Amino acid sequence: MSLVEELRQSIQRKNTVILVARCTITYEGRASSKLGEGERIILIKEDGAVIVHRPFSYEPVNYQPPGSIITVEEAEGSCRLIALRPRIHEKMVIELKEVKHFFSSRLEDRAEFHMWGDEQDLRQAIILDPVSTLGEELELVGSEFSLGSAGYADIVFRDKEGNLVVVEVKRKTADVSSVYQLKRYVEKIRRECEKNLKVRAILAAPKFTPVAIVVLKREGLEYREVNLQHARKILKQKGNLPSFFHELA
User: Fold this and answer.
1) Per-domain residue ranges for the chain?
2) pTM score, two decimals?
3) Over the range 151-180, which residues count as b (16 or more CB within 10 Å of their CB) and which as e?
4) CA distances to 24, 71, 74, 95, 156 from 77, in Å
């Protein structure tokens, strides 16, 4: 069976197709583009999405969204793959010069996608319940606290002794750059506040790189591990759960 026939049958069956091929790409629509010959990864999904990746970068170099009409034509010395969006007159044409790898299969994926929230949700959970997230009772001074040229501190609390507590929140693993960001905030506050006012600093994140922990200890800064699932529970209990969380609950 020829490549053209294999591609046609795969698309008709709504298979997922992965091609590694030497190709050229032209696009006409809201703009126009042309990509010269090179080796690329071409994904054709069952919903009509067509995505082309170069060997570098995570972003596609060309794509057509779900709902595209995909056709395959024989061309002299090559195979032509066309992805068309007729309503808005967008057309992507991929000239396949040489196909190095071809994969076609019907894939099954019925799993639900659960996302435990973003940095804003984590910050809000800490504000609502500092005891269970940071391990102590704290009084809120402000969030997104402007520090002028130093930037914005995520949260500023006051502890039982009257000390200011600056909290920087990261949704993912906190690295050494996060530590120096927090240090910059603390130094700014210490320069501009009363000399006898003590300022504490806490970096809150689900995980920390080993280097970040070393630098935190060296700089006299604190850190707390915060759990995104626990943050979700806090937001739900306090009635601050975003709408998409309610759908997953």
Assistant:
1) 3-105, 119-248
2) 0.52
3) eebbbbbeeeeeebbbbbbbbeebbbebbe
4) 13, 17, 8, 10, 66
pLDDT band for position 145 (50/70/90)? Answer: confident
User: What's the CA gap between 43 and 125, in Å, rounded?
Assistant: 39
The single-letter code of the amino acid at 231 is A
Burial of 190 from C-beta contacts in 10 A (0-12 / 13-18 / 19+): middle
Rounded to an integer, the average pLDDT of 103-127 is 83
Most confident by average pLDDT, 39-43, 60-64, 120-124, 241-245: 39-43
> Distance between CA 246 and CA 148 in Å, rounded?
37
User: Would you identify the CATH topology of the domain 119-248?
Assistant: Trna Endonuclease; Chain: A, domain 1 (3.40.1350)
The CATH fold assigned to 3-105 is Protein Yojf; Chain: A; (2.70.180)
Tokens representing 41 are: 């990864």
Distance, in Å, from the CA atom of 188 to the CA atom of 16, rounded to the nearest integer, reads 54
- Report which of 172, 72, 191, 189 is spatially closest to residue 118, judged by C-alpha positions: 172
What are the respective helix, strand and coil percentages of the chain, to the nearest 5?
A: 30, 40, 30
- For residues 51 and 111, which has the higher predicted lDDT (pLDDT)? 51
What residues pair up with 140 in beta bridges, in sequence order?
157
Check if 3-105 and 119-248 are the same fold. no
Pure H helices in the chain: 3-12, 119-128, 130-134, 176-192, 210-219, 228-237, 243-248
